[in-house]
TrEMBL record:
Keywords attached to this entry: Cytoplasm, Glycosyltransferase, Magnesium, Metal-binding, Nucleotide-binding, Purine salvage, Transferase
Biological process per Gene Ontology, one example term: hypoxanthine metabolic process
PANTHER family given in the database record: HYPOXANTHINE PHOSPHORIBOSYLTRANSFERASE (PTHR43340:SF1), HYPOXANTHINE-GUANINE PHOSPHORIBOSYLTRANSFERASE (PTHR43340)
Lineage of the species this protein comes from: Bacteria, Bacillati, Bacillota, Bacilli, Lactobacillales
Compartments where found: Cytoplasm
Protein name listed in UniProt: Hypoxanthine phosphoribosyltransferase
Species whose genome carries this gene: Streptococcus himalayensis
EC number(s) given by UniProt: 2.4.2.8
Pfam families in alphabetical order: Pribosyltran (PF00156)
Cofactor(s) recorded in Swiss-Prot or TrEMBL: Mg(2+)
Coiled-coil boundaries: none
Family per record: Belongs to the purine/pyrimidine phosphoribosyltransferase family.
InterPro entries: HGPRT, Hxn_phspho_trans, PRTase-like, PRTase_dom
Catalytic activity as recorded in UniProt: GMP + diphosphate = guanine + 5-phospho-alpha-D-ribose 1-diphosphate; IMP + diphosphate = hypoxanthine + 5-phospho-alpha-D-ribose 1-diphosphate
Domain Phosphoribosyltransferase residue range list: 13-160
Length: 180
């Protein structure tokens, strides 16, 4: 039923799993003995984070933040609202933000700067998708699985008006779905 609104599949489920396996192996080596806090940005990061952590073979902690900048539309409003912050102090800790997509970059730039001010030992970003054409601020992910064109994508955690997150792949949403 949901597939009828998808113009094309951009990244398949199998491709996502392989990318998570590769990134997990890299993070295992880089964070060995550091016990990082992986911070999932709710709600979109959940499927990617769940897949990624299965492939990290060293001690990690998990926490989540709920941050909003879209407010139901297809473009970032530019206003970053932190609805749920971390439950723990990050001073001296290694932080790895796990995100579904970097588009404008405003949310992650704000969060990265905030955690540097909170005196985290390191602050890095891992993203499933990077959409550099959408960038409005200077920020780059430390780990990117896929770079995508400037199209409106849904699935694997990404939504339009809270729908389509449960698709097992990343697809381009048909324009007529969100232009009405």
């Amino acid at each position: 039923m949901l597939e009828q609104n998808i113009k094309k599949v951009l990244v398949s489920h199998d491709e996502i799993v392989v990318a998570a396996q590769q990134l997990g192996a890299q993070l295992t080596a880089e964070y060995e003995g550091k016990n990082p806090i992986l911070v999932g940005i709710l709600k979109g990061s959940i499927p990617f984070m769940a897949e990624l952590i299965k492939h990290i073979d060293t001690h990690i902690e998990l926490d989540f933040m709920l941050v909003s900048s879209y407010h139901g539309g297809t473009a970032s409003s530019g206003v970053i609202n932190i609805i749920k912050d971390l439950d723990k102090d990050v001073e001296g800790r290694h932080i790895l933000f796990v995100e579904d997509i970097i588009d404008t970059g405003q949310t992650l730039k704000t969060l990265r700067d905030m955690f540097i001010e909170r005196k985290a030992a390191s602050v890095k970003i891992a993203t499933l998708l990077d959409k550099p054409e959408g960038r409005t601020v200077e920020i780059e992910a430390d780990y990117t699985c896929f770079t995508i064109p400037n199209e409106f994508v849904v699935g694997y955690g990404l939504d339009f008006d809270e729908n389509y997150r449960n698709l097992p792949y990343v697809g381009v949403l048909k324009e007529e779905v969100y232009s009405n």
